């Protein structure tokens, strides 16, 4: 049988190709091994700005907010009834009035008559009392002249009961006169304190009854601001009354200087915090009057604290951590234990009892613990200011 040469030829060609491929790959691998290798890349150490933070003594400040309110706020009501016969020109909204200034007058005819009647009744009662006193003295003399040594068996002999009745009638007439005089005085409606008029609710010729609203007044001698504080803030607050307080209008930025008036001894039902009461005397006589209703920020001078670290507020991350550089120039993060804040600075407890710490001024969210960095020391002069003596 005759065999075809085609399969044999194909097999020989395939073997030759495989051999050539093996020789070529071996040559390429040898050349790659002899080629120069690239130098290993160095680990990048990013620059970070740090400050050298050291513990010191600082004056603590406690901050809060509150609304200025007059120490007295009064809805003035009528004590008597009658027609309004006169109104003072000062009795208008927005005007300031002095204590005891007459704002309006109610017809006093019937009240003047009541005073006169009460005076007449008192005069009659005093006359009757004097007569009973004389009759009682006369009865005692007659009993003594009678020669009877025993005391009278009845108080009527000395007219003791009649004298008591006359005295009671006199006392009643005297109080009736005081009541009539009070009612007559109440026909002249006056300001009970130095104040500003918020509203006037009567007009000339109008008729008022007892209990009708006459006006609304707020005192002008003093305003008070209730400032709620947290427990941590109270720990930094001194117990000294009259401590200075910096007040600022949150809308206009106008500033005033008040003082601590008192401390409340209970928690506010709404905020569940304890309030400190700040006061400002003569608010309407300030260069810029402090009007009731103004919403204020209050900065209260607190205790003098020792062993506290002052840092820029930017050094504290949003999660409350601070980053610092250790001796190996690697980053370390810890939670900041805030003592108080003021302006652009935050005051914290020392970090791990370290005397000096290189704190990162502006930490980034990309920082990792143990990351190698290149610290650049910055000298921020405000960090060493305002230290307490």
TrEMBL record:
Keyword Transmembrane: yes
Domain CzcB-like barrel-sandwich hybrid: 77-216
Coiled coil: 115-183
Domain of life of the organism encoding this protein: Bacteria
Pfam family, one: BSH_CzcB
Transmembrane residue ranges: 6-24
Keywords: Coiled coil, Membrane, Transmembrane, Transmembrane helix
UniProt xrefs under PANTHER family: MULTIDRUG RESISTANCE PROTEIN MDTA
Protein family according to the UniProt entry: Belongs to the membrane fusion protein (MFP) (TC 8.A.1) family.
Name of this protein: Efflux RND transporter periplasmic adaptor subunit
The species this protein was found in: Paraglaciecola chathamensis
Highest classification ranks of the organism: Bacteria, Pseudomonadati, Pseudomonadota, Gammaproteobacteria, Alteromonadales
């Amino acid at each position: 049988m005759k065999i075809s040469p085609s399969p044999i030829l194909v097999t020989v060609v395939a073997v030759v190709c495989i051999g050539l491929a093996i020789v070529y790959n071996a040559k390429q691998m040898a050349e790659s091994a002899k080629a120069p290798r690239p130098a290993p890349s160095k680990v990048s150490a990013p620059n970070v700005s740090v400050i050298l933070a050291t513990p010191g003594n600082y004056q603590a400040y406690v901050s809060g907010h509150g609304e200025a309110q007059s120490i007295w706020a009064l809805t003035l009501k009528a004590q008597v009834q009658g027609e309004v016969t006169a109104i003072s020109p000062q009795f208008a909204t927005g005007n300031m009035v002095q204590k005891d200034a007459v704002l309006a007058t109610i017809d006093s005819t019937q009240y003047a008559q009541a005073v006169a009647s009460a005076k007449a009744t008192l005069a009659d009662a005093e006359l009757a009392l004097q007569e009973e006193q004389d009759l009682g003295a006369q009865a005692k003399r007659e009993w003594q002249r009678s020669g009877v040594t025993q005391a009278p068996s009845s108080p009527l002999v000395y007219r003791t009961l009649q004298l008591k009745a006359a005295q009671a009638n006199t006392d009643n007439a005297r109080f009736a006169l005081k009541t009539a005089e009070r009612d007559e005085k109440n026909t002249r409606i006056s300001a009970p304190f130095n104040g500003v008029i918020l509203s006037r609710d009567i007009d000339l010729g109008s008729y008022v009854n007892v209990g009708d609203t006459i006006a609304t007044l707020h005192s002008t001698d003093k305003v008070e601001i209730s400032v709620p504080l947290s427990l941590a803030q109270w720990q930094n607050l001194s117990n000294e009354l009259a401590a200075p307080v910096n007040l600022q209008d949150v809308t206009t930025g106008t500033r005033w200087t008040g003082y601590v008036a008192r401390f409340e001894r209970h928690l506010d039902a709404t905020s569940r915090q304890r309030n400190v009461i700040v006061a400002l005397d003569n608010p309407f006589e300030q260069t810029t009057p402090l009007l009731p209703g103004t919403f204020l920020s209050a900065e209260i001078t607190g205790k003098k604290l020792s062993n506290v670290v002052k840092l820029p507020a930017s050094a504290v991350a949003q999660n409350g951590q601070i980053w610092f550089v250790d001796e190996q120039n690697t980053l370390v993060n810890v939670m900041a234990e805030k003592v108080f804040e003021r302006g652009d600075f935050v005051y914290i407890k020392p970090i791990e009892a370290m005397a000096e710490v290189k704190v990162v001024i502006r930490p980034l969210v990309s920082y990792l613990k143990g990351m190698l960095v290149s610290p650049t020391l910055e000298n921020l002069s405000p960090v060493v200011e305002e230290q307490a003596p």
